[in-house]
Design brief:
Elements: H1 16-30, E1 38-39, H2 42-49, H3 53-65, E2 69-72, E3 76-79, E4 102-103, H4 114-126, H5 143-153, H6 155-158, E5 166-169, H7 172-183, E6 190-194, H8 199-207, E7 211-215, E8 217-218, E9 221-222, H9 224-234, E10 238-241, H10 255-268, E11 271-275, H11 288-291, E12 296-301, E13 313-316, H12 322-333, H13 338-349, H14 352-375, E14 379-381, E15 388-392, H15 399-408, E16 411-412, E17 414-415, E18 429-433, H16 440-454
Parallel strand pairs: 4-16, 6-7, 6-10, 10-11, 11-12
Antiparallel strand pairs: 1-3, 2-3, 5-13, 8-9, 12-13, 14-15, 15-18, 17-18
């Protein structure tokens, strides 16, 4: 049986398995390979193409992982059919909790009286006699909120910016989704991101039928050489990154490293989507939109610094992409609710939002200091301005096993497994978010319980 999608290896510098997988993708996209068609066995195809069986097996595995092929023991390998795959059930991005829950999974903004401030502004709004609460939102009715966002972000973070460059969304995750919808195209889009990534990256990729590929990091952020290698092997249109506060490791990408990555983005025609949702403190390093304004997106929200209940996020788009982003927003949900727009604009313009942000930063700092006092003798990464700690586990513990042991003590944490990408691996580590909704005494007691568990690993764990 001959193959109707012969891979041509002549003149190709890429590894042969990359050439082969690209040939499979192309044949499926053009109809050369059709749903349900059986492919040759690994050894037969290797003989036909004059390559090793291991090369064919590697290409088949990638195609299986992408959902292009289906392999069944005893039957063989087939082009994937029309049936939808069974959805992957994952831990939800946000789990319900109570003020007394020992929840170290989610980074929740502390209660510092924001509710009273929000209620006061809503009372002021109730006396507004304008007619803006009747019709659909438009580019004019949300302008005041977009101008407030420009002031909130500041020119140092996102470069030269005006209201026309800003598109509003329901939080940072939703704003990331809109940016991805603008940037991704084709039958098999690829997103590059950090080798460990916030679980929302996987959720977004799955919803958009995109494949997500992790890029190795070091202490300065994503490694440029690994980024170039990932692009050449997989192709991609987007780098989705958390350069300022990487969750879960707390790594901050250096200015010099950002410059290198921006240069690669220009070379490879990559869009850079920077998700800055975890930053609370002011930054002295410009974001990618300032460094690479023609292809840099800056995305954040008020969720971690003011209030999560508002669901107010924003994307500062590359100027050439702003019109497309507004079209995506309008096609998806018409626009943000006018009361939320007015409320958030007043929070920012009055200075209340910034005062709350400063108080949140101080609260995080106090809790981080307390956590470091208890866990500082373990292998941890932390920053005074980040509301979580990255804890590398001592020998004898795996991330998932340690999380279960903590849960048995009534303490919920996130193991590194939840940040691993589909084709990636997870280190023996966990992320502990700072729970500001319990007293200092309970907080310290919970951390001491965590420390005792670290000191007593199980004896039956095979590492």
């Amino acid at each position: 049986m001959g193959t109707i999608w012969p891979a041509d290896f002549s003149g190709k510098r890429d590894p042969k398995y990359i050439v082969l997988i690209q040939s499979i993708r192309s044949a499926i996209q053009t109809g050369g390979l059709t749903a349900g068609q059986k492919l040759p066995p690994v050894r037969e195809l290797a003989w036909q193409l004059g390559i090793t069986p291991g090369t064919v097996a590697r290409a088949y595995k990638i195609a299986n992982d992408e959902g292009l092929l289906e392999t069944t023991v005893g039957r063989g390998t087939f082009v994937a059919g029309a049936e939808m795959p069974t959805p992957v059930v994952e831990e939800p991005l946000l789990t319900a909790t109570t003020p007394d829950t020992l929840d170290f999974r989610a980074c929740r903004v502390p209660d510092l009286g924001q509710g009273d401030t929000i209620r006061s502004i809503l009372q002021q709004m109730s006396r507004d006699t304008s007619d803006r609460y009747i019709d659909y939102p438009t580019n004019d009715t949300d302008r005041e909120a977009r101008e407030a966002v420009v002031r909130w972000i500041g020119q140092d973070r996102a470069g030269r910016l005006n209201a026309e460059d800003v598109v509003l969304g329901f939080g940072a995750q939703h704003s990331v989704m809109m940016a991805l919808q603008c940037c991704l195209s084709g039958a098999n889009p690829v997103i590059l991101t950090e080798e460990l990534a916030y679980p929302g990256v996987r959720h977004a990729a799955r919803l958009l039928r995109a494949r997500v590929v992790g890029v190795e990091m070091d202490q300065n952020g994503i490694r440029p050489d690994r980024l170039a290698e990932a692009f050449r092997q997989h192709g991609a249109q987007v780098l989705l990154t958390s350069a300022e506060v990487h969750s879960p490791t707390t790594i901050r990408t250096s200015h010099a490293r950002r410059q290198e990555i921006a240069d690669l983005a220009r070379k490879f025609h990559l869009q850079i989507i920077e998700d800055d949702c975890h930053r609370v403190a002011e930054s002295d390093i410009p974001g990618y939109r300032a460094i690479c304004p023609e292809r840099g997106w800056y995305i954040s929200s008020l969720t971690k610094s003011v209030s999560a209940t508002l669901r107010f996020g924003f994307a500062a788009c590359p100027t050439p992409m702003a019109k497309a982003a507004r079209q995506v927003a309008q096609s998806s949900f018409y626009g943000m609710p006018q009361p939320i727009l007015d409320l958030c604009a007043r929070l920012i313009n009055s200075g209340h939002a910034d005062r709350i942000r400063q108080s949140v930063e101080k609260t995080y700092l106090q809790r981080i200091r307390l956590a470091v006092n208890v866990l500082g003798h373990w292998d941890i990464r932390w920053r005074p301005d980040v509301p979580f700690i990255w804890l590398r586990l001592p020998q004898g513990w795996r991330g998932s096993t340690f999380a279960m042991a903590c849960e048995a003590k009534g303490i919920r944490i996130k193991p590194a497994d939840e940040f691993a990408l589909p084709d990636g691996s997870a280190p023996h580590a966990v992320r502990l978010a700072i729970n500001t909704h319990i007293s200092d005494e309970r907080f310290e007691s919970a951390l001491n319980a965590v420390s005792r568990l670290l000191a007593n690993p199980p004896t039956n764990v095979d590492l």
